[in-house]
Amino acid sequence: MKLTIYFVLLTLSLPSFANEDIYDSRKIPADLKKDAHAVFRLDEGVFEIQAVDKATYRVKQIITILNKKADHFAEVVVGYDKLIKVKSLNAVAFDEKGNQINKWKKNDFEDYSNISGSSLYEDNRVLYADLKQKDYPYTIEIEYELQFKYLYTIPDWYVIPGFHVAVEKSVYTISYTEDTSPRYNLKNTTIEPVKTVEKDITYLHWEFTNVNAEKPEIFSKGILAITPAIILSPTKFSFEGYAGDMSSWDGFARWQHSLNKGLNDLSAETRNEIKSLTDGLASEKEKVKAVYQYVQNRSRYVSVQLGIGGFQPFSASTVHNTGYGDCKGLTFYTQSLLEAIGINSYYSWIYAGEENQGLNPDFPTNKFNHVILFVPLENDTVWLECTSQKLPAGFLGSFTSDRYALVMTGEKADLIRTPTFRDGTNKVELKATLTLDMSGNADIEVSSHHLGLGTEYYSIDRYANENHNNQDKWVRRFIPLSDLQIKEFEFSEIKGDLPEVAFNSKVFARNVAKKVGDKYLLNPSLLNYETRRFKKEPDRKTNIDFPYDYIMEYELDIILPKGYKINNQLEDAEFKNQFGVFSTQYITTDDGINCKRIFKPNTGEYPADQIEDLWAFFDNIKQMENQRLMISKEE
């Protein structure tokens, strides 16, 4: 009966025009093609919950690819593992008029392991097929059915799958029995589902039609911030025999507590070692730092994505004896070591990465992909990123800072926001001495100092320990001169309460001063630009996400060849608005000129109607950076 109902729903969800028209790209309404690289003629999902540990997910997509920029939609990837079975999979390609070109069955798809480079245990695999055609437009149809042996997650539904994508029809249906009732939260839409009940099975049915394509906007949080979406979560679930209740944040804590129970099995020898390591230290914070350093020195990160192992950490003794673990294992291990010396700390889930969309505190759902450790002390709070072998205790990079973490204290949980680290301590200081010769070439000494989140500038934190060839490539990106000869360079990391990296180099560059007639023109900003080049947007839709996390201080001493002088006077200037301050200063010296720039951004989120102020901010920076020194021989 359930399968029959599915096909009835699928038939009803098809567009009202004749079935063959759905494959004919000439039938797409003109307004849907505006700003679109692809049009989803039909995007349909049906998720059928059969039990707390069993579900079926059916997907049907008919996508017209208008140009090469949307070819990625024709690369079909369907993932599976021991808990997800691909029951059926097929695809068809059509030409512009809707004539069938090619057809693929499940056996035609290539089967690949999906193990990442840092993974130790992982059973993920993917079925892959490239459906791209050489002539545009073309249409592809994809259908597949997945069978889940768990109900830990329910696929969310995003109506617009990306920028420059229009949607003719998007349909999502959930079916469930009374004891498997899911929950949903609407995002960027007020469309409630149509609810029907048939023979003790409830159906929730959403439908969206004729959704125009969206264009990306500079300094935006991305498509997920504006697309209509249905966020779904189970209430009761089971994963490989571990039952849970996701209706509250405490339910998450109880479930994770059941997974972690009994795993703190450190030996008496290890406990005594940690006590001896920390006994002489004066404060709890110093003890936390010592334990964290101990973990960093003797362990390394590996990924584990294997059934319940994707959620359950290795035991503390396993991590200790092997010297490796994933975020779960290393965090639980560190927690166990701190417990051995009487310091409470708490296992915490978080969504890590740049595409963090935030959590709705009132809607418990699994939107986490990482684990860190929360250590509340009497006069301080320390967060530990246990997968890092370099970060100081208490510092979180942009990977996990400024967002909610689900801190689990036994069988209770609280959403606590991680620190922002935007208190003026994040800096990039760049100093250089440029000695110009009479041909416009220059010897240049460049040094930079990076503090806090400033160590993520140009990813210098990663390159400080890279091999020489990769560091050489980094230097050529960091010093943006086209004709560059690198004489020497050095990276050094400085231990402290904040991450800190220093860089020093000596280079030779040709034609840094451009000859015009009998004079030379030199841009004092040649080693560092803050100008952003972008097309202005007249009708801004999304809020402005101003991402700069550091203060930039730039100082350049220009030493002229003997017998040369500067013919013009560059004016000191400052521009300030809600987005920050940008200032320049020029001081004549005995042998040339000293140039200083300071960029102090005000990081944050701003209303869309302030976009003109943002353009003004960067227009003024551009004007200041475009100034040129005019250099000539003395008469």
Keywords, please?
635 residues, alpha+beta, Immunoglobulin-like, C8orf32 fold, Jelly Rolls, 3 domains, eight-stranded mixed beta sheet, 10 helices, 40% strand, globular
> Would you give the CATH topology of the largest domain?
Immunoglobulin-like
Q: What's the CATH first level of the largest domain?
A: Mainly Beta
How many domain modules? 3
Q: How widely separated are the two ends?
A: 98 Å
The SS-based structural class is: alpha+beta
Count of strand segments: 39
- Number of helices, counting only DSSP H or I runs of 4 residues or more: 10
| Overall geometric form | globular
What's the alpha carbon Rg, rounded to whole Å?
Answer: 29 Å
- Determine the fraction of residues in helical runs and give it as a percent range: 10-25%
Q: What's the pLDDT, averaged over the residues? A: 91
CATH architecture of the largest domain: Sandwich
List the strand order in the largest sheet. Answer: 5-4-9-2-1-11-14-13
User: Unreliable segments (pLDDT under 50, ≥5 consecutive)?
Assistant: 1-18
Task: Characterize the biggest β-sheet.
Answer: 8 strands, mixed
Strand content: 35-45%
